[in-house]
Design brief:
276 residues, alpha/beta, Rossmann fold, five-stranded parallel β-sheet, 5 strands, globular
């Protein structure tokens, strides 16, 4: 049985989003192997939130955006007569997506749907354009540990997306961080979660996440056993407890050349975020 606390205290309470009580969508993003699946798994255990199975990729293909822009151009005169412009088209697109995903959330007993697609972070501006009341959780991890995880994934499952060289991983990591930086000025809409903190202090971090979302605390988010009631879909370490053994693995698993390459490319951004 799900249990939730109706009140939070201190710092957590002061950061509650003004969207609380609304059905604003939630987006999760970050570089691959950064901990987005862990965040997805934990948040999916909350009774108020339903995560779309697997990664939706709804917004990653820019042809999706281009199609509706072209639609406006092709029928500009007719749309103008109807007072339909770019903002009205964005609202229509958002309504279309919401009409597809809200029933999914409702059938799960939740009042909010959420989408975890790693590349969401690179499309954050478009997501907020479509959904002005949406909230975004950006999961960030040390880029050196991210490379370790990518190499491990490549060696075992060999997914097509894995690019496990330092030369590719480092600039991708920087691009993800840079995409989120402007939104730091709107803390009610954008939250950064460090994988390291989530792994070391899962309850404290999830309390912070839920306070940001304006959702009550639910201890189920920490319980792997709760996954049985909320099927995940997709890969990941479901039904397992959070562990810290993947933090700092780069110190023993990466070559000196790999470490040097990542730090040469990402040093300024790493310093900005406090990574040694």
């Amino acid at each position: 049985m799900h249990t939730v606390e109706t009140e939070t205290t201190g710092e957590i309470e002061s950061r509650c989003c003004p969207c609380a009580g609304r059905h604003a969508p939630i987006f999760i993003g970050g570089q691959r192997r950064s901990g987005t699946t862990l965040m997805r798994t934990m948040l999916n255990r909350h009774p108020h939130v339903a995560l779309v199975p697997r990664e939706s990729f709804f917004f990653q293909d820019k042809r999706f955006e281009v199609f509706f822009d072209d639609l406006l151009a092709w029928h500009s005169r007719r749309f103008a007569q109807l007072s339909i412009g770019p903002s009205e088209m964005d609202r229509a697109v958002a309504a279309l997506i919401d009409s597809l995903l809200s029933p999914f959330a409702l059938c799960k007993g939740a009042h909010r749907w959420a989408d975890k697609t790693t590349e969401n972070i690179t499309r954050i501006d478009y997501l907020f354009r479509l959904f002005p009341d949406a909230q975004f959780i950006h999961v960030i991890r040390d880029p050196r540990d991210t490379l370790c995880s990518m190499k491990q994934q490549a060696a075992t499952e060999k997914p097509r997306w894995v690019k496990f060289t330092a030369e590719v991983t480092a600039p991708e990591w920087v691009a993800c961080i840079v995409a989120g930086l402007p939104w730091r000025e709107q803390p009610e809409r954008y939250l950064e979660v460090r994988y390291e903190q989530l792994a070391r202090h899962p309850e404290a971090e999830m309390r912070r996440v839920l306070a940001f979302l304006g959702e009550p605390w639910c201890p189920d988010v920490l319980e792997p056993s709760a996954d049985a009631a909320r099927p995940q879909g997709g890969g990941g370490n479901h039904h397992k407890a959070v562990f810290t053994s993947s933090i700092g693995r780069w110190k023993t698993e990466l070559s000196r050349d790999e470490i040097t390459c990542i730090q040469a490319i990402a040093s300024d951004t790493m310093t900005l975020l406090g990574y040694e």
